[in-house]
């Protein structure tokens, strides 16, 4: 059963020492986010170093395809972590939050991380009878029957 999302948001910071074009290209390619959706906000860090915040928002079928890409490529061990601690990744409104390792993604791997991550927010278009937790459990099980 394909997951249906009302929206998906991807955001990450680009520090002065990182290659902005390379990061955006990697996120676009590896996570199936159209490059034209990225909006960049320029900021200054604590020591006036340049920092860019990059964000893309997707809706409907595009958001659903994005989620399918993420969950089909995420490591089995990370799916198990998500499955066992799902309540830690869902807020009171039913949005699902993930943090993906930015450096590993550049190298072609989708892994969960806490430090300097790519932040993902998934807003599920769920029928009122099913909770976000139920839908995510189904999605995690669907992508790997070994869980």
List the helices and strands and how they pair.
Layout: E1 5-15, H1 20-31, E2 39-44, E3 50-59, H2 60-73, H3 76-84, E4 95-101, H4 102-106, E5 117-124, H5 132-143
Antiparallel strand pairs: 1-3, 1-5, 2-3, 4-5
Concise summary:
With 147 residues, the chain is an alpha+beta fold. 35% of the residues lie in helices and 29% in strands.
Overview of the molecule:
By secondary structure, the protein is of the alpha+beta class. It has a single domain (5-143), classed as 50s Ribosomal Protein L5, Chain: A (2-Layer Sandwich). Helices cover 35% and strands 29% of the residues. The chain contains five helices and five strands. The protein has helices at residues 20-31, 60-73, 76-84, 102-106, 132-143; strands at 5-15, 39-44, 50-59, 95-101, 117-124. Strands 2-3-1-5-4 form a five-stranded antiparallel β-sheet. Strand 2 (39-44) and strand 3 form a beta hairpin. The longest helix is centred in the middle third of the chain and has 14 residues, at 60-73. It starts with a strand and ends with a helix.
Distance between the termini: 17 Å
Q: What Rg do the Cα atoms give?
A: 15 Å
Overall mean pLDDT stands at 85
Taken together, the total number of domains comes to 1
Instruction: Please name the CATH topology.
Output: 50s Ribosomal Protein L5, Chain: A
Write out the CATH superfamily name.
Ribosomal protein L5
User: What share of the residues does DSSP label as strand, in percent?
Assistant: 25-35%
């Amino acid at each position: 059963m394909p997951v249906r999302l009302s929206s998906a948001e991807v955001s990450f910071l680009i520090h002065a020492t990182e290659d902005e074009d390379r990061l955006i290209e990697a996120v676009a390619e590896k996570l199936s986010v159209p490059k034209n959706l990225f909006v960049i906000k320029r900021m200054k860090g604590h020591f006036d170093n340049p920092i860019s915040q990059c964000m893309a928002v997707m809706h409907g079928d595009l958001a659903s395809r994005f989620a399918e890409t993420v969950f089909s490529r995420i490591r089995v061990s990370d799916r198990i972590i998500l499955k066992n601690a799902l309540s830690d990744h869902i807020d009171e409104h039913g949005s699902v939050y993930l943090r993906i390792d930015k450096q590993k993604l550049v190298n072609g791997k989708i892994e969960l991380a806490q430090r300097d991550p790519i932040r993902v927010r998934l807003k599920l278009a769920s029928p009122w009878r099913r909770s976000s937790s139920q839908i995510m459990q189904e999605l995690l099980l669907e992508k790997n029957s070994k869980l």
